[in-house]
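Closing statement on the magnesium ion sub-project.
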Amino acid sequence: TSHPLALPVGTTLDRYIMNRQYAFAYATGELSQLLRDIALAGKIINREINRAGLIDLTGGMGVQNVQGESQQKLDVIADIRFSRALKNGGEVCAIISEEEEEIILTGNNNAKYVVAIDPLDGSTNIDVNVSIGTIFSIYRRVTPIGSEPTVEDFLQGGHEQVAAGYILYGSSTILVYTTGHSVNGFTYDASLGEFILSHADIRSPLDGTIYSCNDGNVDEYEEPVRKYLASCREKHHTARYIGSLVADFHRNLLKGGIYLYPPTAKNPDGKLRLLYECYPLAFIAERAGCRAVTHRESILDIKPRSLHQRSSLYMGAPAMVSDLLCLFP
Ligand code: AHM
Ligand code: MG
């Protein structure tokens, strides 16, 4: 199934992006530059994370972000780094971030794109050396070029994403993204300072044996979800849950599994944020052959209403997601 212009494993991200740009006649290079800006910010965050323990970057700031969670120093740093990289890069007119209530205007009103980002996801894992990630989603603006961007640019819906991706800062750092065609992963080689194509055209298994949810919440899950989890245990499936969405998603994508974040008493609409957590991962999941749904619709079909809207999320191998959905009346 490899594309005629497919590049071999070992190709650098920069070269890959340039090659893809030439493959599309209409491409002007702005999206390519934007993807490179995100990769650069990712390298900077990666550096900060790797030395976090040394320079006392871990631990709380004593302030709360817009969702009322305690904000970690690294969250703040990642937010600043990404905003700066996207502002300086010049291809983005506005950003929304998990860390900020309102849209961030970059001042580049002539730019075509807007970006929704969770700069550093997995906040409870930051100061304990466990994998964390960045999630991003890119749209072409709908407001006229030259004008000030508005929330409308962000509330287009999941199908309108032009690209989505994540960076997982794990046992190695990997950037995975798609522009709506294949999904490709680039592992960071720190000695070269380059992301290198390591996972070309990722296709997820159709079925799997891993299930990932916060077991502490199970009593609050709705009946069909509890039934599904009981069936996983009956089949001696494997429970794996890191509590960093990117890390749990990446593992299940490669190995075959299902990720579940159902509604709970504390988060009746689900915990995860639609625009910069669910949409981008759902976009990647579908392109890699997985499904991403709530109990009643596909994540990408959800109509966005507000910037920090939440959703429940069931995502992973299509056979597993279908088995779960069958249990809902
Ligand atoms: P965060 O944006 O505050 O980091 O929260 C999102 C995280 C996801 O990475 C993870 O999947 C989920 O929250 C874990 O939640 P819980 O601790 O409730 O299991
Ligand atoms: Mg998050």
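The longest strand covers residues 113-121. With this model delivered, the sub-project is considered complete and its resources will be redirected to Aim 3.
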